[in-house]
Every structure is written in structure tokens, then in C-alpha cells.
Predict the 3D structure of the following.
Amino acid sequence: MSSIFVFDAYGTLLDVHSAIACYRNEAGPDADRLSDIWRTKQLEYSWTLTLAGQYVDFWTLTQRALDYALARVPSVDKALKPKLLDAYFTLDAFPDARTTLRALKAKGHRTAILSNGSPDMLKGAVDAARIGGDLDAVLSVDVVKMFKPRPEVYALVTDYFKCAAGDVTFVSSNRWDVMGAAAFGFRCFWINRGNMPNEYPDFPPQQILRDLNSLDFVV
């Protein structure tokens, strides 16, 4: 059984929609639509730039994605932009994130984050969520200047821990991320919080779990 557990950050440990939740009343009835577009474009930009052989850090993409979302949802006051961006540095951790990381460390496992996030974004979020003490490493794609699901990104884990891909258990709420990690050779668990349909049948996860608390029963 693997003793190295690596987690995606955004959507897995950290609630990406908690930024809009802080300002839901100010954003109005289209708050959730804005948040969904913001997240979708943030990821789309990371994929298209990587496919084109280009790189812009994730914080810049986050800002550009929010600009696009605000343009698409004109009912939300554009004056909220600075507040929403600030909130991204202090995203709420899912309640099961702290307990899961703490439980893994108590059992002697090594833990890490592997994220598209820029180093400053990740430091702010990890500090705000108070999970840094239960992590051995916070690894950012900024080192290789390309985004998931490129194999060079997952290799950051094996390089850091000086291990084989099969020694790593990778946990993500993003099915495309699980696909990339499984293709690289990680043992993968998909945290399907939204009860989404399965995809990428050629690269299945080891198990599909509804939350991180369920991980304790299978490790």
C-alpha cells in the first residue's frame, strides 16, 4: 500500500466556489452562474495554453477568467472583482480536508499537494486553511511552466519524493486530473462530490468516492 498521498488543491481540498459565497448577497441571483463560468474558463485557459506550448501563471489566468465571467454575467457588479480575487487567497477548505490530512499523517504517511496554482496562491490558501502542518510538500506547476494533465507535472511528485509512480496515491475531484495521473501510473481516487458521470474509461480511478472522509476506509 502506498505511503505517499498527493492531493489536488482546487476543488479537492479547497472549495473554489467559497470565493463567491463570501459575497453572494452583493453578487445577486446570478452568483452561482458567475462562479461556474469563472472556474470553467480558468481551467480552459490552462489547457489551451499548454496545448499551444505557452505558459501564463495560474493567478493571471484566474484574473482573466474572472474578467470573462463578469462580462458574461453583467448583472454582477464589476466592482466586486478585487474582493473576489482577494477571496481566492483564503478559500475555505472542505471540512473533510483537515481531518483526512491529519489522519494520514497520524498513520505515518507522507502527504503533498500537486496543483496548477501559482506558489503565492497556494501559500495563501494553505495558510488560510491551516493545513500546512499536515503537508510534506506543496508542489506547483510553475516549476515546469505547463499545466495538468501533462505528464511532466505529475513527474514533479516522483522527482520530489524520489519514488516510482506506482508508489503514489493521487486524489482529485477533477476527473480529467485523475485521467492524467492514472495515465502517468499513479494509483488514483476520484472524489466525486457532485455525483458527476464517469469519463475517460481507458484511465479509470481505483475507486470513486463521494468525499475525502471515505478515503479513510480504503487506505
